[in-house]
Amino acid sequence: MKKANLDLYTDYLLSTFGAATATGLSDMIDGEVSHDQITRFLSKQDYDSKDLWSQVKSTAREIESDDGVLIFDDTVQEKAWTDENELMCWHFDHCSGRNVRGINMINALYYSNKTSIPVAFELIKKPIQFCDLATKKIKRKSEITKNELLRNMVETCVNNHLKFRFVLMDSWFSAKENFNFIREKGKHFISALKSNRLIALSENDKNNKRYVRIDKHNFSEQDTVQAWIKGYADPVILVRQIFTNKDGSTGNLYLICSDLSCDYNAITTTYKKRWNVEVFYKSLKSNANLAKSPTRTVRTQSNHIFMAICATFKLECLSLKSKLNPFALCRKLLINATRAAYEELQMVRASA
Hints:
Oligomer: single chain
Order of helices and strands: HHHHEEEEEEHEHEEHEEEEHHHH
Radius of gyration: 23 Å
Largest sheet: 11 strands, mixed
Strand content: 15-25%
């Protein structure tokens, strides 16, 4: 990968406020690089998680600590008008509660010393087509599950000798296979659980297979309870957080931690760091033009996504140096661009 091309493309993603096209990039630099060169750059090879690590490794080494956390989450970016293929296909979007056509990806975000950077990613591709017997419609499915991708990414981060103590996950990734794998790698996890998960509150109940739904147990907030999850052999610490909604109703968040030395405050404070992945996704979509590329092939679409992730990382680094959050920094760029356009308009009017 030519670093000059990567820097140029990621700078363009952070600078443009419309569609991110090869022609637009070429026009921005007065044709110093042709749009064909940009297209060839996106088409030449596949850029993946290994390439991302090569870009972020030096920064990761600067910020890493033994108390770092690895945060996993997936996101969907709708692209309703893009032709369907194995990458741009139908996915269920939990935010909107419906199936949408677009991009689905899973990311590993590393958080340490008040800094968050992406260290691994996987795009959800569905190359296998089949006919749904119930609806008689052609559908797609992946060759590998998201949980398998998560385990592969954890292994990659361990092999890269990235320092972290906890893996943070929401309830979607709370599979026993993930728990076992993380512990086998010598790491701990903090995960949300759905209220219908079955647990036992004593080893005797576990051995006799007396499991009860979490929401059927009456334990107060800020209590720490040792429990056994059905299907997972080791004990965990279970806590409950109670939230009050705007309408006055309450909701429960059940968290489990594999580190039995942690108390309520340690578990809940650490899990709050998971919010950083939501901020990352918002920046990826709002600041790095994730969805604004008209690329057509799977390779160019995948590589544009990779470039957008790199651009979001670059913006985070600039944010640390400028002491402005990424959104304020992009807002500043927009204001300056608007001011320059306004001044140019006044000059055109004066000369007309």
